[in-house]
Amino acid sequence: MAILEAKKIHKHYQLGQHTILALAGVDFSVDKGDFVAIMGPSGSGKSTLLHLLGGLDTPTEGEIILAGNQLSKLNEYEATIVRRHNVGFVFQFFNLIPTLTAEENIQLPLIIDGKDPRMFIEHLNRILDLVGLEDRRDHKPDQLSGGQQQRVALARALITEPAIVLADEPTGNLDSKSGTAIMELLQRSCHELNQTVIVVSHDPKAAAYADRVIFLRDGIIVHDYRHDASLSLPKRLKAILATMQELEKSS
User: Which DSSP helix (H) or strand (E) runs through 213?
Assistant: First the structure.
């Protein structure tokens, strides 16, 4: 069952007298529990698409349907509520509040939604265990490594049990070891929590963790395929690199 649908999405920006075409008819759907990577060169429309999927921006044409909600039919307040209840965001630069502990940063979405964090302690402990931060829950961001801060950001995205987690270059500000750990955690959240995840990345090593890879170029989908579930990570990476090479030849 589709948890997210993008129907013929176009996005134009006006820059002075010039119209910039960011997306030109993107059309796909994502099922619950899917782990999808969106790849493409700089300027291909990856981040623009992610912002549209999460309701942070609106398409020029087309429709986004998120967890059964047709976003174009909602006013700003309604869209905010739908986004708050259905989307967890993970960004490249963590966006943690420096004066709060790891636990408090993770609980923040609950507080914003008017919920009592004490009612979610069991779920919080499960998430902290998943991301390996049980012994860092009382640490503030400046007491954590970059990889640990991104784990906090991921836990914060998962705490409300959203319909979908959207991650924009989640490994882009991390070293290779920390980046691998974050992708493994995203993969585990799919398998253990049945979480739907969409990751935007230019890194084929990160994309190899996904079950499905969508390639964007010049604002359109040029390739979309699902890995065989039995494929090992190195074979997935090899398939992605081969696809990238073929797409470069055809450009």
Answer: strand 212-217
Q: Strand runs (DSSP E) across 68-206, as ranges?
A: 69-70, 87-90, 164-168, 196-200
Look up the CATH number of the domain holding residue 134. Answer: 3.40.50.300
User: Pick from 57, 59, 86, 36: which is nearest to 200 by CA?
Assistant: 36
Report in angstroms the alpha-carbon separations of 122 from 101, 140, 141, 158, 234.
18, 21, 23, 13, 36
Boundaries of domain holding 10: 2-250
Those residues whose C-beta lies under 8 Å from the C-beta of residue 244, and which sit 6 or more positions away, are: 39, 204, 215
- Count up the domains in the chain and report the number: 1
**Terminal Cα distance for the chain, rounded:** 34
Q: Is the pTM of this model over 0.85?
A: yes
Task: Give CA–CA dist 39/46, Å, rounded.
Answer: 7
Q: Enter the tokens of residue 124.
A: 């919080």
Per residue in 19-34, pLDDT (tens digit) is 888 899 999 999 999 9
DSSP 15-45: ETTEEEEEEEEEEEEEETT-EEEEE--TTSS
- 80/85 Cα distance (integer angstroms): 9
